[in-house]
Amino acid sequence: MLISLVNVLINGLAYGVLLFLMAGGLSVTMGLMGFANLAHGALAMLGGYILVMLMNGHGWGFIPALGAATVGAAAAGIVVERTIYRRLYRGAELDQVLLTIGIVSMTVAAATYIWGAQPEAVHLPAWLDGRVHAGGIDVGTYRLFLIVLGGALTVGLVLGIDKTSFGAKVRAAVDNRRMTLSCGIDVDRLFTLAFAIGSALAGLGGGLAVSLVGLDPNFAVKYLVFLLMVVVVGGLGSIKGTLAAAVALGVCDVTGKYYVPQVGAFILYAMTVAILLWRPRGLFGR
Amino acid sequence: MAAIGEADARGLFIARSRWRWEETLFWLAAAASYVVFPGHLVLVTQALISGLFAVSLDLMLGYTGIASMGHAAFFGIGAYTAGILAAHGYGDPLLGLLAGALLAGAFGALCSLLVARLHGVALLMVTLGIGLLCYEIANRANDITGGDDGLQGMVVGPVLGLFPFDIDGRVGFIYAFIVVFGLYLVARRIVNSPFGLTLVGIRENVRRVPALGIGVGGQVMVIFTVAAAMAGIAGALLAETTQFIALEVLGFDRSISVLISLVLGGIGSLIGGMIGAVVFTVTRDQLAAMDPVYWNFWMGLILCAIVLSGAGGIMGLLRRVSGGRR
Known about the structure:
The structure holds two protein chains of two kinds.
Chain A: H1 2-32, H2 40-58, H3 62-83, H4 93-115, H5 126-129, E1 131-134, E2 137-140, H6 141-163, H7 165-175, H8 177-182, H9 187-213, H10 219-234, H11 239-259, H12 266-278
Antiparallel strand pairs in A: 1-2
Helix pairs in contact in A: 1-6, 1-9, 1-10, 1-11, 2-3, 2-9, 2-10, 3-9, 6-7, 7-9, 10-11
Chain B: H1 6-16, H2 21-36, H3 41-64, H4 72-87, H5 93-115, H6 120-140, H7 142-145, H8 170-191, H9 194-204, H10 216-242, H11 252-265, H12 270-290, H13 292-309, H14 313-321
Helix pairs in contact in B: 2-8, 3-8, 3-10, 3-11, 3-12, 4-5, 4-6, 4-10, 5-10, 8-10, 9-10, 11-12, 11-14, 12-13
């Protein structure tokens, strides 16, 4: 009983880390730059399809394909930010929401047109495909890999935003754009770069998600709701909050599905609404 | 600024509530469709119901400035209330409308207490969460709602005990037309009243309204309740005229569709909500019949175009064309 609980918890943790990777970028764009980007899930989906295409169609290895997914999503993010999003930074939230829903809708249609509606899968390399047994605990190697990778990236992100001059500049530009400009900092370029990093994380998360939760053209919509919940519950712009919320939601979802499947996603939604009513700015909101 | 006399104030409200040509044209065309499109009355009926749903959202979003990504919750509650009553032998249509309005309105009042102090992204997310919650509850409560398979076995009686619903949708159309038009008049009356001006005040500057001696919380609760009840009636109408309820009445898609309809028609003008909903419903019917995938693409493109152009939807364009006449 206890051991099965530990197994379920580890699975939940892996799922939470995956959510965090995809939501981390959303937290940066929504929280730090104040742009409600609902198309973030579409960037993750793009990463997933790049991975599938390269591995199944061109025989690439898992790690290089994952790298390509990251770079591809970052490139797509830069293009969208430069051409479309830039016009709406000062706009109303509702306009941003509607515009990005429009983009999601078009992406889903385009993905169905290009790759078809069927679910996609990839074969993991042997060193990730096994299972680890230790003292009755039995976990897929891939899940451990996710947890380790996620942990490393989290440390990198937290340090990157809190400790580097890049993070300081982004935070300054968000707080007072004109003052930052007058300090000689190119805010436009800064935002593009921040957006690219968020998109890269989404692409990486999308690539990693294929083997854990699968991939089809509805991915962009299906996970969007989870990502939004993670970001808002964690507190906009707080990386630590996003991590805490992602892990909490991931563990709750997996344990809930395992022990009380008849309740479904109900607990998750109720929790989100309750937390937001208690703290409208999220758990770690500023 | 000089004090406005009572006569001036009355003149202001009379001017605000004057019928505009596009309103007259729309309702004449809607009535005429009974004769012009006798083969498509079911579709026109659904378009009118979507229009009422969009108008109910407009009261909240367009006039009071409260955005919602879960407005389908109220629509679905109305639909299921009327549907479940009809499935248990209480098939009187007007009773269904009334019960749907009451339940949806009560839920709206409750929600208004929850969201009154939220704004921006948190407001959007909580309304989204409430919508998803309602969907999930209906999905799980299989015994009552039929869950994923939809609610079966509705028996809707004749309207007023006299006019049974027919297969061509004639009675359904007339019934829906009268209800929607009646509620449109009610919504008009609301937005053109002093209370309606207060709502606009809340939208424009929520801090200054209390300075006029008006409590914001109470006003928000009233309009939230009214809007929710109206959405509930729209849902009940759909359930009664189609005699079936799919879980989709509570879905995220429906919440987004009504937002798109409203934006397409023009936020902040009631007739814009009606026109947007009719254009949206008919376009979707035509395009989705060809290919659902392409429909998604075109819908996305239209949405991006509306937002990026900043034209304010169909009503915005109309006003621009007619030289700023309001």
